[in-house]
Amino acid sequence: MEPHDIHEEKVLILDFGSQYTQLIARRVREHKVYCEIHPYNISLESIQDFSPRGVILSGGPSSTYGSSAPHVDRGVFDLGVPILGICYGMQEIAEQLGGEVGHSEQREFGMASLSSLQIDPLWQGLNFPEQVWMSHGDKVLLLPDGFSAIGETENAAIAAFANPQRKAWGLQFHPEVVHTKPGRQVLKNFLFSICDCHGLWTMHSFIETTISQIRDQVGTGKVILGLSGGVDSSVAALLLHKALGDQLTCIFVNNGVLRQSEAVDVRKMYGRHFNMKLRYVDASQSFLKLLAGVTDPEKKRKIIGNEFIRVFEDEAHSIEEVSFLAQGTLYPDVI
Length: 335
Fold this sequence. Notes:
Layout: E1 10-15, H1 21-30, E2 34-39, H2 44-50, E3 54-57, E4 83-86, H3 88-96, E5 100-116, E6 130-142, E7 148-152, E8 160-163, E9 168-171, H4 183-194, H5 203-218, E10 222-226, H6 231-244, E11 248-254, H7 262-273, E12 277-282, H8 284-291, H9 297-316, E13 322-326
Parallel strand pairs: 1-2, 1-3, 3-4, 4-9, 10-11, 10-13, 11-12
Antiparallel strand pairs: 5-6, 5-7, 7-8, 8-9
């Protein structure tokens, strides 16, 4: 029986500082599988509490054999959860489990032709040789016990390895980038054939689950949200409104530097069309007075940000018995 909770199918991405980590997460979500990014040094207890269907170890700029090299908790390899190491992540698996990683005679950055060395569930649907994208200065020199090389390139005799008994796979190339032609299929194979995910994380299921979570958390409390009319705050506002109705109050601040007719459009769209409780604060004159004569963009940004907080707080304090402050922002932002 397939799981019905979209968060039962969670994939954990452990970040070693790769420039592609957010892209890995995007590719996983494109397959309708929920995932979260956490730092590589997250505790083993937190990983167990997260209860992932699979773990992906990202690439990174370090060498696994350096004295200051970042390492995941060794216990992650004993959880019985499928693990996919990408670039540094592959080398981390080898280093932790008794293999050997060393400097490559020739640094690879660009296209490579990948050949298969044996049949593997990771290669389902591929037609070798396949074009892949390499970006590394180190490589696996010696496999850990129980591992086999399943792919090679001209410059890497161990371009991919596997140990199905330990549920561990490693790729020296980057399946998340578009230059790796079979990358989407490789990640699909890991998620569905190896991790046994079903692709339940659709927008419809996300909305329904999020609304339910909001109602459980907020109960009968009141929520305020700073609404700009942009995508991030608008999505948050609509989800909250669907979940809570008039328990939500949105505050829209006119800072004097909005687009033409934007103040009118926002009030019309959210106040009248969506029938939200919307408070409009025209603080344009106070903003413009503070910005007068300022030409440095960074100073302008700080002035606008600080004045927005002051205006928003003044308006928020006029609303009684508020229990929650909501914010709409991008996933990569850390508050």
